[in-house]
Amino acid sequence: MSTLSTVVQRNGGFVAAIGVALLVLAFTVGPSMTLLMLGALIGLGVVAAAVMVPTVALGLMVASEFANASGVLAQLPVSVYMALLGLCGLSAVVGLSRKRYRARIRPGWWIPASLLLAYLVTLIPSAVLSQDPASTTTSLSDSLKDLVFVVIVSLLLQMSGRPWWTIVAILVPLAFISILTALSEYVVGNNVTFGGFSTIQSDAGADIAAARHSGPLPDPNFWGRFLILGLPFGLASVTRSLNRRNWMELLFSGGATFAILLGIYLTQSRGTMLAAGLAVVVWIIAAGPRIRRRAFFLAPLSLLILLLPGIGDRLLTLTQTVSSAPDYSADQSLTERGNVGDVAFGVFKANPLFGTGPGSFANVMTHYAPLTNAGPTGDITATHNLYLEILSESGIVGMAGWAILVIGMLVLAYNATVRLAGSFPDARGGRLTRATGAAGIAAIVGFSAASIFLHLAYSRTFLFVCALIGYMYTVARTDRELSRPGPRRATNRARKAFAFASAVTVLTAVAATVVGATLVGVLARQTYVATSELTLQATGAGYPGYAMDVRRRVATLPAYASVIQAGGANQETTVIADPTRGVMTVTAVGSSPAEAIQRRDAIVTNAPNAIKQSSLDAVYNVVTVSVGDVTEKRAVDGTTLRIVLLATAGEIALVLFLCGRIRREERRRGVWLI
């Protein structure tokens, strides 16, 4: 007799009694009160199940975090996150009191929490010397809560022992919300937020093909980082379904993975697209030869994907960060983020060892910005770069702690992956596979790559992946089936393959750097740059004190800079306002020093006439603050960058071809050549 039949026989009468009682209530007190009572009963049932069954508690926490339910439902009187954390903590305590669950806890379950604790310890000196104690206190409080979160989740993962159900709990909210964003974009015309789970940041951006959807978050870039963490586990689930030949599972896992990819596309985030591509490549490499062979035949699809509107053309806008194009023609978000990065690096240079204190950058940047000579930052108060954030706030010591955390997790994921190389690829008995270990590696790499463009926020999804990697490591280390001769040989082959891949990666990176640097040096144009700084001087009309305060009224200088810029006929000259310093910088580029000076002076000379023609000279006059020397600069345009990218891609293809020949020779001779 099936388990379902047994459950129905044992509890059918109880369920029928509840149904009759609800029916009576519907006729006596009304349907609204009945539905409320029904909801309360269901809620109590879920809470009871979560307390008694660790898998339920873990699934609720995972789904809530990857859906950012606590952020969407922030208006509730009780924090969703704190309520679930308390529920999961209670479930962990109840599980520890029961021999059945306590026996499942494997040695080493605490390693992810210890790595996080090591990072937090490195923050202590910077916290003691913080230049913004209030923000640092808040940041450390959140970090301690994250430590408790990792401990509880690690215990629940051990006691649950159902990793594939946990992966389903990751995929379901990510895929469902991605579907909502697609419905918003293509069906309802972006007029519905679906309760706050499908929001739109904006419909503006360089070469975007859709509105920038941010799901349950206020920023599509951070939502993209959520999706990157889930994408490799979706691929692992697809692989498991194919090997099991279970078409219902394949329909779910394939549909969820496709929905996640669609969600990544609808973020229209360049950093997300690049990091997602890197995560997929890393997963393919680490998941084993069978998957690599399959991926080889699907590789041409990647070229077709780049041709889609909003992908290839949007990625090419990143060339503006290193090209000689004038700043006014570049993507404003790229320019402002680059300037904030300059400020963060200036903060780090001023406080290299311990930084200014965790969580302090937003408040100290106004002090350091004038000292770094950075350009305008707009309303951005975060570094938008995790590594610059750590360096500026915690210094070299804090960065060392973060390196311990990330490298430690990669080592755990590597050990789990090579150990699981001897497991069955169809996950017999619910066991983990090499593809899931590879997903852990890819998720960490993808998160780290995406964090080049993002600061550390919504960290619990990343920390959950760390806890999941720790669980996979303990399972792989303690599974006796993997110690048999056959699996052990597979593990040894996987270690050699990883060593070979590491050597190839280093060789490819060195060769690509040499090729790219050589082409840039040969193809870059020699140009000359002349600069001058202007400011606004109050005429005395109106309220002189109010007029002189241009630094605090951040819109004034950019408005005048735009007018002066529009008055210049040459697009090789830019006028960039910096309200923090109170100046407008005129930058002219020419093929000779004389040409650069002539273009700069033309803008400076025409500036008073430009603001007069716009009737803006009643309150301000334009005066010159300083005139800079002419400097030399190697200019790189978009065409040059495209040539460099194509040549680098060709070099990578050549290296991979040679490596394939080496591997075939290895198999023929039975000797490990590299």
List the helices and strands and how they pair.
Blueprint: H1 3-28, H2 31-52, H3 54-66, H4 69-72, H5 80-96, H6 99-102, H7 111-122, H8 124-128, H9 133-160, H10 163-186, E1 199-202, E2 212-215, H11 220-244, H12 247-267, H13 270-286, H14 289-306, H15 312-315, H16 332-350, H17 361-372, H18 386-419, H19 434-450, H20 460-478, H21 485-523, E3 525-538, H22 544-548, H23 556-566, E4 573-578, E5 583-590, H24 593-613, E6 620-627, E7 631-635, H25 638-669
Antiparallel strand pairs: 1-2, 3-5, 3-6, 3-7, 4-5
Helix pairs in contact: 1-2, 2-3, 2-5, 3-5, 3-9, 3-10, 5-9, 7-9, 7-18, 9-20, 10-11, 10-12, 11-12, 11-13, 11-19, 13-19, 16-17, 16-18, 18-19, 18-20, 19-20, 21-25, 23-24
* Total domain count: 3
Major sheet: size, sense and barrel closure?
A: 5 strands, antiparallel
Total helical elements: 25
Distance separating the two termini: 57 Å
Oligomer: single chain
SS class: alpha+beta
Membrane topology: Multi-pass membrane protein
Protein name: O-antigen polymerase
Pfam families: Wzy_C
Transmembrane segments: 12-29, 36-58, 78-97, 109-128, 164-183, 250-266, 272-288, 295-312, 395-414, 435-454, 460-476, 497-524, 640-659
